[in-house]
């Protein structure tokens, strides 16, 4: 008997170990937040579907997680299909909200999509402090990142090599930077670092270096270059004058007021203090 | 009677606990291997074995993505090889110094210092490399490439920095394993060598080191394993662009490739990163098989 018991115990334990390690393996695969739909006592139940921009993944994940915590009866599903595809699904009526990391085009507006700007993404170009160059034109910035210009003296600075620092492939900041500057896949990086902090630290400590980070991450260890004479500030970005910025749009078919109560709740959550906190926390600027 | 039965229970319980512990280790190895193969092989099909392993362009997010990891594999091999070439002679001579040359009091200071080197977390090595080594490298880079317009300046984050950091990191492994195998060489051998008129240095290089050969090789292989698997320190000093592994190029290793891109990768990009992991795993496996073989030879020698 004892022996049998021990054997069963051993088998059970081994099985538990196996499950444990499998769960650990599975965990790295999908990081979708698991929210159980309790539904008890909450008024809202149902499903909100979003589709669109891959750049908005961080915002959407954070927002939907926070929203579902506040409204346990609601499930938010987001697909990252790209801005144009998202608006198309919205117009066709297969999703409630279409995400676009750009302003809507006239054709899209004509087909019924309404532009609701929920946040603005701004990218600052940062330079090492001793750099004499403080203003760059869009063209100069493009030349630097494509490797056409390699010394600051060509741009009116001192004789110092340019160390081009960027982010790793797949980074949202890199995607936005390259897209806004129209240098997708043409950049010639000397260093590809995997976090905003690393870029800041590297630029701060390397003479002649240039890098880019989310606007909210800029601190006084580096100088932030102005672009075409426009400084990278929140005011200039909300005014639409700074080039390296883009709106994050959650488009609806028709005005928000015409939507079902779930979608209305979603937008009022975004407008609420908690929602605005989420936006700031993922490093975005609040639209005015 | 009763006492014996009680003893029996304790014995069998202990036996099962030991078995379970052994099963956990084996199970972990098997499941990791299984998982890496399961996750790492699909990309061979989607990208193509040749394009993946021998492609030189790494543009995973481009319009037409390219997933060539040849430069990454080469960087890992060159970086590990060079750091071993630098680290092993230094480590071996340190071990000789500790066991054969120095007086006991000095060895009592040096040995703990070497052991402390092993206990320092790799992120600290990375930090020091970042703060001390990279600026020096940048000065050097500016001197060497002053008149070379085609060179892309990396700000000192380059292959050479990674090699130096790795060489220091493998020192303690090489020193400790070599030192213990050198001190295990029977004194009769040394005495015989000295008796026939060989000098102390001749004895060390012609008798003691050859006699401790397999132990020293074990240290070298362990060092290779450590260098190959290191990620954090290299990530901080090597620059991270995918380039040909030349001394002053910013490079990316197999390990840092995973560290830096796993966060946001998706689709095929993610699959390829698992393949990178699989390649690294295969390398580590090879290193370990060599190690096992060396150990077996060592025991046969005895």
Descriptive report:
The complex is a heterodimer of chains A (288) and B (302). Chain A has 10 helices and 11 strands. Chain A has 288 residues and is α/β, with parallel strands linked by helices. In chain B, β1 and β2 form a beta hairpin. In chain B, α6 packs across α7. With 302 residues, chain B is an all-alpha fold. Classes of the chains: A alpha/beta (288), B mainly alpha (302). At the A-B interface, α1, β7, β8 and α7 of A face α1, β1, α6 and α12 of B.
Order of helices and strands of chain A: HEHEHEHEEEHEHEHEEHEHH
Mean residue pLDDT of chain B: 91
Strand proportion of chain A, as a percent range, falls in 15-25%
What is the CATH T-level topology of the largest domain in chain B? MetI-like fold
Span between termini of chain A: 74 Å
- Please report the number of helical segments of chain A: 10
Which key features would you list for this structure?
heterodimer, A: 288 residues, alpha/beta, D-Maltodextrin-Binding Protein, domain 2, B: 302 residues, mainly alpha, MetI-like fold, 2 domains, two-stranded antiparallel sheet, 2 strands, globular
Q: What's the helix and strand layout?
A:
The complex is a heterodimer of chains A (about 290) and B (about 300).
Chain A: H1 2-29, E1 46-52, H2 57-70, E2 74-80, H3 83-92, E3 97-100, H4 106-110, E4 113-114, E5 117-127, E6 135-136, H5 138-146, E7 163-167, H6 172-180, E8 191-193, H7 196-205, E9 209-214, E10 223-227, H8 234-238, E11 245-253, H9 261-271, H10 273-281
Parallel strand pairs in A: 1-2, 1-3, 6-10, 7-8, 7-9
Antiparallel strand pairs in A: 3-11, 4-11, 5-9, 5-10, 5-11
Helix pairs in contact in A: 2-10, 9-10
Chain B: H1 2-40, H2 42-47, H3 49-54, E1 58-59, E2 66-67, H4 70-101, H5 104-119, H6 122-144, H7 159-183, H8 187-195, H9 200-211, H10 213-229, H11 232-237, H12 254-261, H13 268-301
Antiparallel strand pairs in B: 1-2
Helix pairs in contact in B: 1-13, 4-7, 4-10, 5-7, 6-7, 7-10, 8-9, 10-13, 12-13
């Amino acid at each position: 008997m004892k022996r049998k018991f021990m054997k069963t115990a051993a088998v059970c334990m081994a099985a538990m170990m196996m499950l444990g390690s499998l769960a650990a393996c599975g965990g790295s695969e999908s990081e979708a937040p698991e929210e159980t739909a309790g539904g008890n006592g909450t008024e809202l139940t149902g499903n909100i579907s979003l589709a669109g921009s891959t750049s908005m993944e961080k915002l959407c994940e954070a927002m939907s997680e926070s929203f579902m915590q506040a409204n346990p009866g609601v499930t938010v599903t987001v697909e990252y299909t790209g801005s144009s595809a998202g608006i198309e699904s919205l117009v066709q009526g297969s999703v409630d909200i279409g995400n676009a990391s750009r302003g809507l085009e006239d054709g899209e507006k004509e087909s019924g999509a309404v532009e609701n700007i929920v946040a603005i993404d701004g990218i600052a170009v940062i330079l090492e402090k001793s750099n004499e160059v403080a203003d760059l034109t869009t063209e100069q910035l493009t030349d630097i990142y494509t490797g056409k210009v390699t010394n600051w003296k060509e741009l009116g600075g001192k004789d110092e090599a340019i160390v081009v620092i960027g982010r790793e492939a797949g980074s949202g900041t890199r995607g936005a930077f390259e897209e806004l500057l129209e240098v997708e896949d043409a950049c010639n990086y000397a260093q590809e670092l995997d976090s905003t902090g690393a870029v800041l630290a590297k630029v701060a400590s390397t003479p002649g270096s240039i890098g880019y980070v989310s606007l909210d991450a800029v601190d006084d260890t580096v100088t932030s270059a102005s672009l075409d004479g426009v400084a990278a500030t929140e005011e200039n970005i909300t005014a639409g004058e700074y080039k390296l910025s883009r709106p994050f749009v959650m488009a609806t078919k028709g005005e928000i007021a015409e939507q079902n109560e779930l979608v209305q709740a979603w937008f009022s959550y975004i407008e609420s203090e908690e929602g605005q906190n989420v936006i700031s926390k993922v490093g975005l600027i609040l639209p005015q | 009677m009763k006492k014996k039965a009680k003893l029996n229970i304790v014995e069998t319980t202990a036996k099962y606990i030991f078995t379970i512990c052994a099963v956990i280790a084996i199970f972990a190895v098997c499941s990791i291997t299984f998982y890496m193969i399961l996750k790492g092989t699909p990309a061979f099909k989607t990208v193509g074995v040749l394009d993946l392993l021998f492609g030189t362009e790494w543009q995973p997010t481009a319009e037409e993505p390219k997933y060539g990891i040849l430069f990454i594999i080469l960087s890992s091999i060159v970086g590990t090889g060079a750091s071993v070439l630098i680290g092993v002679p230094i480590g071996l001579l340190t071990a000789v110094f500790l066991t054969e040359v120095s007086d006991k009091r000095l060895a009592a200071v040096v040995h703990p210092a070497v052991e402390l080197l092993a206990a320092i977390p790799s992120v600290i090595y990375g930090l020091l490399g970042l703060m001390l080594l990279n600026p020096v490298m940048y000065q050097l880079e500016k001197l060497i490439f002053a008149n070379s317009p085609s060179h892309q300046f990396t700000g000192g984050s380059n292959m050479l920095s990674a090699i130096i950091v790795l060489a220091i990191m493998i020192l303690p492994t090489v020193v400790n394993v070599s030192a213990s195998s050198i001190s295990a060489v029977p004194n009769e051998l040394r005495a015989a060598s000295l008796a026939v008129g060989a000098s102390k240095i001749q004895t060390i290089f012609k008798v003691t080191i050859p006699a401790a050969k397999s132990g020293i090789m074990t240290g070298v292989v362990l060092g290779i394993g450590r260098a190959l698997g290191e990620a954090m320190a290299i990530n901080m000093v090597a620059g991270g662009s995918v380039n040909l592994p030349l001394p002053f190029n910013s490079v990316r290793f197999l390990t840092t490739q995973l560290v830096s891109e796993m966060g946001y990768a998706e689709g095929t990009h993610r699959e390829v990163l698992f393949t990178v992991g699989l390649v690294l795993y295969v390398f580590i496996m090879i290193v370990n098989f060599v190690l096992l073989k060396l150990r077996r030879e060592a025991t046969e020698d005895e």
